[in-house]
Amino acid sequence: MSRKKETITLSISPGTKAKLEAIARRLGIMWGKSPSISGLIVAIAEEDYELGEKFTLTPEQVDVLDHATQLLTDKGFIHKAETLLQLMLDRGNLDSPSRQDLMRKIGKTGQAWRNLVEDYRQKRQPFRVLYRNAQGEENTYTARYVQFDFHEKRYYLQIWCDETEDVQGSDFPELNHNRCLRLDRIQSIVPTDVPWRDEGLDLIKVHLHFYGGLLKAYEPRNAVDIEDEVIGDVRRVVRQVANPFWLMREIRRYGKDCEIVSPPRLRELLAQDYRQMCDRYSNPPPSVP
């Protein structure tokens, strides 16, 4: 039994019919090979489509979504990252260079390095990785142990590798086999037939003292802090460190309320940074054009 249909009569200005047909065609609402104005009106009534002025993302919103896509990509949620990238392309009101940059990112997310590396890690499968560093130089590393660590807004791939030739003048030669890689700079990954390293990354023990407000405010790093005790007005922490670079960046935020006690080499490196900073601020500021 056919459903009874109601009819309406529209009075529209010249050219409006063509515009309605164009909207119906764009939305794929057709009657045979022709756009259907009746179908368009039904779709509007049933709220199947968004009408009115098309919303656009502000530059600040695009920036936030860009950071979110990087985190999703690093954690292996490739499809979700691509969905956000597509949203920025559709609604971001971007200039041509920004649009091209997002399109390149969509291509990169498809490589899904995190998923592949996680699969190898679970299988204890070593691999060779071709990596392009910040200077554009390419190196190949034989990764025999891997883990993911979060540092300052993104995940990094930490590996223990056989190669040490690219390390020159290291302050910590005992850590020369460790590398910290950005996932978006990986060029290729190929499995290789060498033993998996059960010992993990190479580590050094760093003794830290916390003072003042950090006596209670310091949040323990359960994965790497192996000792944590309060004696008088000092909080003493011993941490296992695979990459002193990230530790020094963290400590700078604490200022005078944190001190590296040992090893002496790391303490001196941070002291050099502070001395250079004091020297810079002891001089008059440069003229601003």
Distance N to C terminus = 82 Å
User: Mind describing the biggest β-sheet?
Assistant: 5 strands, antiparallel
The total beta strand count reads 11
User: What is the third-level CATH name, the topology of the largest domain?
Assistant: SH3 type barrels
Mean pLDDT: 85
- Give the CATH architecture of the largest domain: Roll
**Helix/strand/pairing category:** alpha+beta
The proportion of residues in beta strands is: 15-25%
Low-pLDDT residue intervals, each spanning 5 or more residues: none
Rg is: 29 Å
Helical segment count: 9
Q: State the CATH class of the largest domain.
A: Mainly Beta
Tally of domains: 4
Description:
By secondary structure, the protein is α+β, with helices and mostly antiparallel strands. It folds into 4 domains: 16-45; 59-109; 113-191, SH3 type barrels (Roll); 204-282. It contains 9 helices and 11 strands. The model has no long low-confidence stretch (mean pLDDT 85).
Offer a quick outline of the entry.
With 289 residues, this protein is an alpha+beta fold. It is 38% helix and 24% strand.
Notable characteristics:
289 residues, alpha+beta, SH3 type barrels, 5-stranded antiparallel sheet, 9 helices
Strand and helix map with partners:
Layout (H helix, E strand, L loop, with lengths): L15 H12 L2 E2 L2 E2 L1 H9 L13 H16 L3 H14 L4 H14 L3 H11 L3 E6 L5 E14 L2 E8 L16 E5 L3 E6 L12 E7 L3 H4 L7 E7 L2 E8 L2 H11 L3 E5 L1 H19 L7
Antiparallel strand pairs: 1-2, 3-4, 3-7, 4-5, 5-6, 8-10, 8-11, 9-10
Helix pairs in contact: 3-4, 4-5
